[in-house]
């Protein structure tokens, strides 16, 4: 750590509009409001890119870390959902930045939280949703890695959210399905405080 240096940056801009959470909706692309899409895409995709552009030169000097907030929606398809597509972009951006930054001594992590009990869900968060503190703990875990270690992907989900297997557009719940981290990811226990 250098005095007056930027040792870590967190790109946590983003959001979605209420039309992404309408029950029974066929998908936002079918019946969403296109006037709401541009601000969401700009915040969710351009926001992290601009944060990276502004912070990478400083993080290179300090050999610091950049954390981008993705979403489980960015690693699991959500039919017709534009928010999900923006979070896929964040996951891709994180890997592209990692490839660029690792040779410069910068660690890059994407944290992909599942459902969180915040205003983001527009009052529709289920009782199993995680506390925002759980996401903060995951970010802290990413930032706390020892020098020389680059933790790339952290995916956290609330306990009680079953894995859903898709077959022909039908959602199936397998009785023995367990949430397992994807290859190359870390799974952290979370609390619902």
Could you explain how this protein is built, in words?
- Residues 170-193 are annotated as: Disordered.
- This is Oxidoreductase.
- The structure is a single chain.
- The protein is α/β, with parallel strands linked by helices.
- The protein has one domain (8-152): NAD(P)-binding Rossmann-like Domain (Rossmann fold).
- The chain is built from four helices and seven strands, in the order βααβαβαββββ.
- The chain has a five-stranded parallel β-sheet, with helices on both faces. The protein has a two-stranded antiparallel ribbon with strand order 5-6.
- β2, α3 and β3 (107-113) form a beta-alpha-beta unit.
- α2 packs parallel to α3 (82-101).
- Mean pLDDT is 81; it is low at 165-193.
What's the SSE blueprint?
Layout (H helix, E strand, L loop, with lengths): L7 E4 L16 H4 L5 H26 L2 E5 L12 H20 L5 E7 L18 H12 L9 E4 L7 E4 L2 E4 L12 E2 L6
Helix pairs in contact: 2-3
Short account of what is shown:
Keywords: NADP, Oxidoreductase. The chain has helices at 28-31, 37-62, 82-101, 132-143, and strands spanning 8-11, 65-69, 107-113, 153-156, 164-167, 170-173, 186-187.
